[in-house]
Specification:
The protein is of the alpha/beta class. It has helices at about 15-20, 40-50, 65-75, 90-100, 115, 175-180, 200-210; strands at about 5-10, 25-30, 55-60, 80-85, 105-110, 130-135, 160-165, 185, 190-195, 195-200. The protein binds the ligand O=C(O)c1ccccc1NCC(=O)[C@H](O)[C@H](O)COP(=O)(O)O. Pathway: Amino-acid biosynthesis; L-tryptophan biosynthesis; L-tryptophan from chorismate: step 3/5.
């Protein structure tokens, strides 16, 4: 099985960025959602982005964002991809991909097989779907450390690239990859010591656990 690519989401400091790079993660995520404990402004992301340039991919995470925020963030942080983590439709995903000319990742919240089936509608509109856990109403739509039944996406063969998120941490990520065969894993709270506080040792342990099953 090829090694799964790693994305460390919710990076807001230079130290955590460097830890992700040392761990040979493929991508980091910058959260542009004000209610998140991991939120960064376009200006903060721009500084991190300068440091990341050419060393790791930079994914901007948005929740039903308006065009002004998207344009600010893409321009300031020179993002390599957009991750849409709200209720963005296939039409909106396609519109943003055309406007900004960078890949679009669509996060889909999963609790049942029907949620996974929604991925098909994003073929041709997004470049990748990220299956994540459904979170309780009134909470954040991601980054909550919740997982879902991995069997629902085991060996998923859909019309676009995909990845797995939701409650992944150093202790369970190897098993998640074995069960699902996912080509990409995404974590945020699983490599933190408190909400929004990345832990460099946990980032290293997560990356090592992913490589342990190559
Ligand atoms: O991280 C946040 O605060 C956040 C806020 C709003 C939407 C999505 C958010 N995070 C998404 C992610 O970091 C991951 O893509 C995914 O949800 C996994 O998070 P976790 O379960 O904490 O590993």
């Amino acid at each position: 099985m090829p090694t799964a690519a790693i994305k460390i989401c919710g990076i807001s400091t230079g130290d955590s960025l460097e830890a992700a790079i040392r761990g040979r993660a493929a991508h980091v995520g910058f959260v542009f959602f004000a209610r998140s404990p991991r939120a960064v402004s376009p200006a903060q992301a721009a500084q991190l982005s300068d440091r990341a340039a050419g060393r790791i991919g930079r994914v901007g995470l948005f929740v039903d964002a308006d065009d002004a925020l998207l344009a600010d963030a893409v321009g300031a942080a020179r993002l390599d991809a957009l991750q849409l983590h709200g209720s963005e439709t296939p039409e909106r995903a396609a519109q943003l991909r055309a406007r900004f000319g960078i890949p679009v990742w669509k996060a889909l919240s999963v609790a049942a097989a029907a949620d996974v089936a929604r991925a098909d509608a994003y073929a041709g509109a997004a470049d990748l779907v990220l299956f994540d856990a459904k979170t309780p109403k009134g909470t954040l739509p991601g980054g909550m450390g919740l997982s879902f039944d991995w069997g629902l996406v085991a060996n998923w063969k859909g019309p676009l690239a995909w990845g797995l998120a939701g409650g992944l941490d150093p202790a369970n990520v190897a098993e998640a990859i074995r069960v699902t065969g996912t080509p990409l894993v995404d974590t945020s709270s699983g490599v933190e010591s408190a909400p929004g506080v990345k832990d460099e040792e946990r980032i290293a342990a997560f990356c090592a656990a992913v490589r342990s099953i190559a």
